[in-house]
Amino acid sequence: QVQLVESGGDLAQLGRSVTLSCTAQGFTFRNTPMGWLRQPPGKAMEWVADISASGATAVYADDVKGRFTISQDNAKNTVYLQMNSLAPEDTGMYYCAARPGTVGCSFPPDRWTYWGQGTQVAVS
Fold first, then answer.
1. Contact indicator for 51, 105 with CB cutoff of 8 Å
2. CB atoms inside a 10 Å sphere around CB 42
3. How far is Cα 21 from Cα 99, in angstroms, rounded to an integer?
4. pLDDT in tens for each of the 124 residues of the chain?
5. Is there a contact between 119 and 112 (Cβ–Cβ < 8 Å)?
6. What's the number of CA atoms in the CB half-sphere (13 Å) around residue 110?
7. 20 phi/psi in degrees, rounded to 5
8. All residues at 6 or more sequence positions from 66 whose CB lies less than 8 Å from its CB, including other chains
9. CB–CB of 72/55 below 8 Å?
10. Which one, of 48, 55, 95, lies nearest residue 71 by Cα?
């Protein structure tokens, strides 16, 4: 059974940092593109970042580039999103997503196969 469990969401002050974690099970993690997406209050889901199956390529949305870093630990089946210099527009529910059986990255929200339950980040 595929399961993605996020953690680390928090109420953060402007300019501070938060690190999200997502632990996966039920598929071959090290061969799977993993991503983070978010849904700001009252807005549509948006893609934030993802990392290729090999872990060699990480890509970011323009508004988080240089502030957020996605990484993975294959031994722990965990993907991380380190978020620095948080701004109010980073507020939202953050979701971890997986797309087993594919290669590449930069997948839009409707292309992800599995999703976690989400973890809330609020910046004030």
1. yes
2. 6
3. 17
4. 999 999 999 899 999 999 999 999 999 998 899 999 999 999 999 999 999 988 889 999 999 999 999 999 999 999 999 999 999 999 999 999 999 988 878 889 999 999 999 999 999 9
5. no
6. 1
7. -95, 150
8. none
9. yes
10. 55
Pick from 23, 34, 100: nearest CA to 70: 34
Helices (H) and strands (E) in the chain, counts: 0, 11
Residue with tokens 């599995």, as numbered in its chain: 114
What's the pLDDT score for residue 64? 98
Tokens 């799977």 correspond to what residue?
32
